[in-house]
Amino acid sequence: HREFAQAAEDVLPLILEMESRGEELSEFEAITAIAFYWFAQQNCDVVVLEVGLGGRLDATNVIRNPLCSVITHISYDHTEILGNTLTEIAGEKCGILKEGCEAVCAPGQDPEALAVIRRTANERHCPLTEADPHLLHVMDETLAGTRMGYRDMLLEMDLLGDYQVTNAITALTCMEVLRRKIGMDRITDHSYVSGLAAVRMPARFEVLSKRPFVIADGAHNPDGARVLAESLKRYLPKKHLVALTGMCADKDVQHYVHTLAPLFAEAVVLPLENPRSMEPEKLSALWQQNGVTSYLGEYPGQALSLAVQLAGKDGAVIICGSLYLAGELRPVALDILPLLR
Q1: Reading across the β-sheet that carries 68-71, which strands appear in turn?
Q2: For residues 329 and 270, what is the distance between their CA atoms, to the nearest angstrom?
Q3: In CATH, what class is 2-198?
Q4: How far is CA 282 from CA 269, 286, 294, in A?
Q5: What is the pLDDT of residues 309-334, one digit of tens each?
Q6: Count of C-beta atoms within a 10 Å radius of residue 151
Q7: Is the domain covering 206-340 a CATH 3.50.50.60 domain?
Q8: Element holding 164 (H helix, E strand)
Q9: Which residues are bridge partners to 320 per DSSP?
């Protein structure tokens, strides 16, 4: 925290200078600039940059010669900016493919998106490696984590769900490319084992507590809702589920609620600490329309306590609908859940 604060303080004069010239930066652009500054200070050997939105026009996309550009699963999100078809969205995502760079693509892409990825890679002379899902075999998956076989290695990770297995084989494929094509010999088989074992992804079907049972998941678009529904059916079958939820108004809220409503008995709705927040009364009404009894929360601690009470000792609370909400509730949950046992 201190290092981030110092980096922000160092970069702030430049940001203010840009604003004085009428060049206003978004919050994400400012944070990206601070991150680049910090990376330079640390003399990083390798930096993993995650695109904020799209790719072509994203603040992270100023790197001229990336070692490897990775395109994960493409679905419908931010359609008002990226386009209404997978062809348009994939075109924006492919903006990170630079002339001659190595490229890796996640398995299971929609054919429409995959065609764009392949064409763009070919046009820009990018050797494209499509991750092979058959190389990674799931041996066991419980709420404690996922055990997998990869080549002759046993891999374990705390992450849950098919999409995390897809992410894992995509990451492993990227490592193989860096190791075998670019010659990064510091990457070893042990790197794969220790790397996956160390991965933590807050608010991605994250079990915050087992008594009371509380999970945080930041999924906020139709594809995320579908994946969350699959995970709930697999890991928490026949559980009395209570949604603790809030969403941005610019998301496909109706589709999200319609997908998840059959799995929930009740919902507790909170506003987000964000100007894009959907009015909780409207979101609550939407849950009610989909057959779920809904309550309005007053503040995070009270809403979480109410959700836990509604779930009962054998049920589960699912914090869902927004990464903003998960970010607000996660520290509150970790603080007060031990008191609710």
Answers
A1: 68-71, 102-105, 128-130
A2: 10
A3: alpha beta
A4: 10, 6, 11
A5: 999 999 999 999 999 999 999 999 99
A6: 12
A7: no
A8: helix 162-176
A9: 217, 245
